[in-house]
Amino acid sequence: MDVKKVLLGLFLVGVLGIAVVASGCIGGQQTATPTTVTQKETVTETKPVEQVTLKVIGPWSGAELDAFMEVIKAFEAQHPNIKVEYKTYRAEDLSTILPLQFESGDTPADVIAMWGWFIAEMGQKGHLMEFNEVINPDEYVPGILDTVTADGKIYGVPFTAAAKPGFWYRKSFFEKHGLKPPETWDEFVALLEKIKQIPGVKAPIVSGDSVGWPLSDVTEHFILTFGGKDLQLKLINGEVKWEDPQVRSIFEQRLVPLLKAGYFSDPIEWTSAVDLWWKGDYALYFMGTWITGMVDDPTDLGLISLPGVKAMVLAPDYFMVPKYTSHPKEAMELAKFLATEGQRIHVGTKSGKLATWKKVSIDDYWEPMKDVAKVVANVESAPDLDDSIGGEWQKTFWDQLKLLWVQPNRLDDVLSTLDAKFPKK
């Protein structure tokens, strides 16, 4: 076959096909309208998600803040439209600042960590959001919500709690000097005397101070050991006086003799005391469980509770949401997260805290805290005495204990002052 003829035939078929298509598009029944000319495209506009910045105030700094920020990072990851800004304020300062701002309809932050009694008081005055429909009270340690509840309304949510279980020591220090934890009160006193004789040790027990509460924590441990949770609650409620014989005997027979014997140091700024104790200037330090996150090697920590201890303080942090927040929905969402899944994250860090939300398990804990959590689980949980009473009396309590620490012969004056300054019911 002639190649030229074949090519010519194919060319003619192509031209014919183009003519047919053109005919159908222009003059036939199958005319197609070019979309680029006459067909309108439908464009769906997506409204951008509003970015919200929440301000949070808490008492933490340093290592404690690092642990808390792990919780905040997790919240921000789950809520990409919310950014959290954190500021550190002492609760003592906030107790003066917040009432004035609330009365003027303003707030320095959207979510604020504060004392439980203060939260209940501000809630009753109409300054705070309510959490009754936000959290389930049955999911928390019994009694943990009592402090932030007034007239059946829940004005704050619990976060993790510090336990105040006893005197911490370095295992390496005890091994070096042939010391062992005591099992009786007499053995405890004998241990203190033996430590006192070790060259280079300034005192067996370092007394943390400058913020008031370290000395009150030690005192409460003595009350809970020798008086139990019942006595602690009666002191909180004003049902028992500080000059009551049962209370006086705990001071006269247990605490004051140790002070007079020089087993406690004079009060020292509490964070500086950590460093001095860790390097061996002192052997024991009564502190809450958060100390596990403040030392170089938490696996070197040992714990001595007073022999026969009946109860321990479980001191949770609480958060409140002022009604004056510009972002109530997002602020309540953050508060709920802190009270629930945020606790699971927090106990897994070096925070040294215990969960108040019952859905957190032992497996969720940072390894050095697992044994502590088990110890605390075997005694009664008691509320923090001075935090529960609060107000001006709390400051009086701190000041009077400083006096007692340096002048233990002033016990009578201390006890009478605590009774005289106790808030009237």
TrEMBL record:
This protein's record includes keyword Plastid: no
Keyword Electron transport tagged: no
Keyword vocabulary terms for this entry: Transport
Alphabetical list of PROSITE patterns matching this protein: PROKAR_LIPOPROTEIN
Pfam families: SBP_bac_1
Family: Belongs to the bacterial solute-binding protein 1 family.
PANTHER family, sorted: ARABINOSE-BINDING PROTEIN-RELATED, OSMOPROTECTIVE COMPOUNDS-BINDING PROTEIN GGTB
Protein name: ABC transporter substrate-binding protein
